Amino acid sequence: MRILLMGPPGAGKGTQAVVLAERLGVPHVSTGDIFRANVAGGTPLGIEAKRYMDAGEYVPDSVTNDMVRDRLAQPDAANGFLLDGYPRTLAQVDELDSMLASHGSSLDRVVELTADLDEVVARLLNRAVEQGRADDTEDVIRRRLEVYTEQTAPLTAVYNQRGLLAQVDGMGAVADVTSRILDELGI
Ligand code: ADP
């Protein structure tokens, strides 16, 4: 299964993705996690990405696309994956289409986690206290939500038109959200 999980920052994508990937037996491919691992490791990619991430901006497509292409070419992603945090721009949608087409495949389903804005901000501020992520300050959170609304929310219309989109309420207990997603996936 080739699944894309979408949703605003703080909707719980990361949490759900880990559970779902395990359940589906596919790798969890999170661009945010890959960027953060590179930042922690001080790699050239991490140094480049950090400037954008700390400001709540998207890392340029030229950097992100190459990184995802390499990751999806790994053998463990050959039979499926759970993508989390990519694509986030319309240009990335095109790029992902061509990456998958070059392997003779395409996405099977796109799950959008929907969330209440106030709830999302509260969750992110709480995570800031617990995990100390550099991009979880109030100003940066506000910017990340804006960027999501401007650049990423429009992607759902594209996937809806393709008949791939399932919208799932991301509010409530983690296990409840997981079962809603599994229902939508027919699992
Ligand atoms: P969020 O909690 O905002 O969903 P992620 O952990 O998925 O956060 O991503 C953190 C940051 O990494 C983003 O704010 C952005 O700077 C960068 N990033 C992640 N995925 C992408 C992408 N597909 N394109 C550009 N930048 C990305």
Sum up the structure in keywords:
binds adenosine-5'-diphosphate; five-stranded parallel sheet; 9 helices; 5 strands; about 190 residues; about 60% helix; Rossmann fold; alpha/beta
Describe the structure in your own words.
This protein has 187 residues and is an alpha/beta fold. The chain has one domain (2-182): Rossmann fold, CATH 3.40.50.300. The chain is built from nine helices and five strands; from the N terminus they run E-H-E-H-H-H-E-H-E-H-H-H-E-H. It has helices at 13-24, 31-41, 44-55, 61-72, 90-102, 117-131, 138-152, 155-161, 174-184, and strands at 2-6, 28-30, 81-84, 109-114, 165-169. It has a five-stranded parallel β-sheet with strand order 2-3-1-4-5, sandwiched between helices. Helix 1 (13-24) crosses helix 9, helix 2 (31-41) crosses helix 3 and helix 4 (61-72) runs parallel beside helix 5 (90-102). The longest helix has 15 residues, at 117-131. It is globular, with a radius of gyration of 16 Å. The model has no long low-confidence stretch (mean pLDDT 96). The structure holds adenosine-5'-diphosphate. Adenosine-5'-diphosphate binds at residues 9, 13, 31-32, 35, 52-53, 56-59, 64, 85-86, 88, 92, 135, 144.
